[in-house]
Design goal:
This protein is mainly alpha-helical and 700 residues long. Helices cover 54% and strands 5% of the residues. A hairpin with a 2-residue loop joins β8 and β9. α1 runs parallel beside α12. The chain is elongated. The termini are far apart.
Length: 700
């Protein structure tokens, strides 16, 4: 008798139920198509709302996966979840970051490359959104955005993934099996709290666009849908073993209303203060409706291209933005944009097939016995990972940006050869008209804060709104006091050099807040903090009692606060504000000199490249800048004797205003978008000296 033990047989593998849903893939395809179309073509104007669709989908899919695991096993493997998320997101993102940094090094000069490298660090540690908030970035206004800017949305999701599984596990533990029906209620309550926080923060504009708490409600709404017992199709795995399906008529109605909400939100985005609401709610309704209708043969054939795009949507999202940014430099225009979109689809397909799927479909690490011992040692990882992510986010918000490590690679500007000041306005205009070919490599290194006038650097006389004023130069007994915003302070080397020898001068300024006090009709358009700073500047003038007050105001102050008014009305109000300010400063022995603000242009720290040099950095006189300067000149004329106006902005532009080069006679004009470099300010000294009757202005 054969007493040998029976041969061991492996237990049959049981494949878990499919969790793929056609409606999720279709929504992903719609979302990425909206984002790419808006970035590439500028239409639809609300295409950026595709990111909000992604947020709802992420909250839904992740919560659905966690609940399905809880139903099957009675627990949630937080270590396994973290490993799966890393394997899902990191490989493709790492490839895109490495390629983007490499191309940036070849395409741009050191200042912008260092900036991109810092963005790469922020992207890899999952704090890109807070990195942009610290920079006060404006998603809707940036003209030379980072090729890695779009990683902000991944950072929001990663921060959600770090916290939500732990929070959901706590909710499940508190509710227990007997009160499982309370799970949707608790998650919905959390969504309501997130909604209140988002509404309290106001419309997601400026840097608020990137904030996590402004987006949390969108992810939580998707999570709420995943907990509903009515979310049931033949491909759905939910927290409920026997989910209740909705009637077909109801699902069709919900799906139609939801799709309509997404469409309406996208179309009304330019005029709606909260366009995210119909898009987010509409996406949630589509998910509630399920995908049974989309599985019908006729419908499935129609949506097949959208579903196919949805399956490569993650890689398509990662690749499209850097390719569009690079195309705008290498091949600007429609052909370059079309090429970038085509290459995006090709790379997205290859990346999904050869980077994402091989790692995502590998056998889980914990399934193999030899790895179980290692996983036991990682029991604390579920608490460590959220702590690390939260710590990095808080540090980025409050202490220091992780991307600041890249700035250690910055070099001080090279010492450019000294050039003689322009003899007069005619010599300057001649230099402006010459299309020179400067050494862009050397000049690009000068587009740093080190090239600003000393008064504007840290510890100088330029302070932020709400900070106590600081005065450079003569603090008491000044003959001349320069007061205003940062562009006014940037003119100070020119004013100091142009004044007669022995004149005592003081300089004080507040960043982004000039000394011009708006007329009462529009004063409410300025913040209380800025109005307080303006009054502090006026008190400083009264205390110093100089013979001459020099003021200026950046064009952005006019554009940001009056730009939505009819052009003629805005100019009239600015003229009145300037005239009232001149009257407030001037008295029997004090006179006022008004200088125009420099012309805005592309940021010289990011616009030059190794193909075109500083050509892309040229600006032109905009209608709002021209209207502002005309209004200021009229205000000075109406003020009578004792006030003078100098249009210094016109000196650095062609006579017709069509071109304001960033480099004139091998001298960098702007440090960034608007602030004058110290080198160019020094070269303007003789021009300003000849343009002003200093004896008349300084006479008591």
């Amino acid at each position: 008798m054969d007493r040998s033990p029976p041969p061991r047989t492996k237990p049959p593998r049981t494949k878990p139920p499919s969790t793929k849903r056609i409606d999720v893939e279709a929504l992903r395809g719609v979302a990425v198509a909206l984002v790419i179309a808006e970035h590439a073509l500028g239409t639809p104007a609300g295409g950026w709302l595709g990111v909000d669709v992604f947020f709802v989908l992420s909250g839904f899919v992740i919560t659905r996966s966690l609940l399905a695991e809880h139903v099957r096993t009675g627990r949630i493997d937080l270590v396994g979840f973290a490993v799966r998320r890393i394997r899902r997101l990191l490989p493709a993102a790492l490839v895109v970051v490495v390629v983007t940094v490499s191309v940036s090094a070849a395409l741009w000069f050191r200042p912008r490359f260092v900036s991109v490298l810092g963005d790469a660090l922020a992207a890899l540690v999952g704090t890109m959104n807070w990195h942009l908030v610290r920079q006060d970035a404006d998603y809707f206004a940036e003209t030379a955005a980072s090729p890695l800017r779009h990683f902000w949305s991944l950072a929001v999701e990663e921060q959600f993934y770090a916290v939500w599984p732990v929070l959901l596990l706590a909710v499940l533990a508190v509710c227990g099996r007997r009160r499982a029906g309370l799970v949707p209620v608790v998650v919905a309550a959390l969504t309501a709290v997130g909604t209140v926080v988002a509404v309290g923060a106001g419309p997601v504009t400026d840097s608020a666009y990137f904030q996590t708490w402004a987006r949390a409600w969108e992810l939580l709404l998707g999570a709420t849908v995943a907990t509903l017992p009515t979310v049931a199709t033949r491909s759905t795995v939910t927290a409920h073993p026997t989910p209740r399906a909705l009637p077909t008529a109801v699902t069709v109605g919900l799906g139609s209303v939801g799709a309509g909400g997404v469409i309406i939100g996208v179309l009304l985005a330019p005029v709606s203060p909260f366009p995210t609401v119909p898009v987010v709610v509409g996406t949630a309704l589509v998910l509630v409706a399920g995908d049974l209708q989309l599985r019908l043969p006729a419908v499935r054939w129609v949506v097949r291209p959208v579903v196919a795009l949805g399956r490569v949507s993650y890689s398509a999202y990662l690749w499209h933005w850097p390719l569009l940014v690079f195309a705008a430099v290498v091949a600007p225009g429609a052909m370059g944009t079309a090429a970038a979109v085509t290459v995006t689809l090709v790379l997205a397909t290859l990346s999904t097939r050869y980077v994402e799927e091989p790692l995502r479909t590998r056998r889980p690490v914990g399934h193999r016995p030899r790895h179980r011992q290692r996983l036991r040692r990682l029991r604390r990882l579920p608490l460590v990972v959220p702590a690390i992510v939260v710590t990095l986010s808080v540090a980025t918000m409050t202490v220091g940006d992780p991307a600041s490590a890249a700035r250690l690679l910055e070099r001080p500007p090279t010492n450019a050869p000294e050039r003689l000041p322009f003899a007069d306005a005619r010599a300057l205009r001649t230099a402006v008209a010459v299309d020179g070919h400067p050494d862009a490599t050397a000049l690009a290194a000068g587009a740093t804060r080190a090239s600003l006038p000393p008064a504007m650097r840290d510890g100088g006389c330029l302070v932020g709104v709400g900070e106590p004023l600081r005065t450079c130069g003569a603090t008491t007994g000044a003959d001349v006091l320069v007061v205003g915003d940062s562009t006014t302070v940037a003119w100070s080397p020119t004013v100091v050099g142009a004044l007669p020898t022995g004149t005592a001068i003081g300089v004080t300024g507040v960043a982004s807040c000039s000394a011009v006090i708006p007329t009462r009709a529009v004063r409410h358009r300025w913040s209380d903090a800025c109005l307080t700073a303006k009054r502090a500047l006026h008190r400083a003038v009264t205390a110093a009692d100089p013979r001459l007050v020099v003021i200026s105001a950046v064009t952005g102050e006019y554009r940001e606060h009056l730009g939505d008014l009819p052009a003629g009305r805005a100019a009239e109000l600015w003229e009145r504000s300037m005239a009232e300010t001149i009257r407030a400063f001037r008295n029997d022995h004090r006179r006022v000199l008004v200088l125009s603000a420099p012309q805005y242009g592309p940021d010289t720290s990011t616009c030059p490249d190794r193909i075109h040099g500083f050509g892309p950095c040229a600006a032109s006189v905009t209608p709002d800048a021209r209207a502002k300067r005309t209004a200021e000149a009229a205000a000075v004329r109406s003020s009578g004797p004792g006030a003078a106006y100098v249009d210094m902005a016109a000196w650095s532009c062609s006579s017709d205003g069509s071109s304001c080069p960033a480099v004139i006679d091998d001298t960098l004009v702007r440090v960034d978008q608007v602030h004058t470099t110290r080198a160019f300010a020094d070269r303007l000294v003789p021009v300003l000296r000849r343009a002003v009757d200093w004896d008349a202005l300084l006479r008591r």
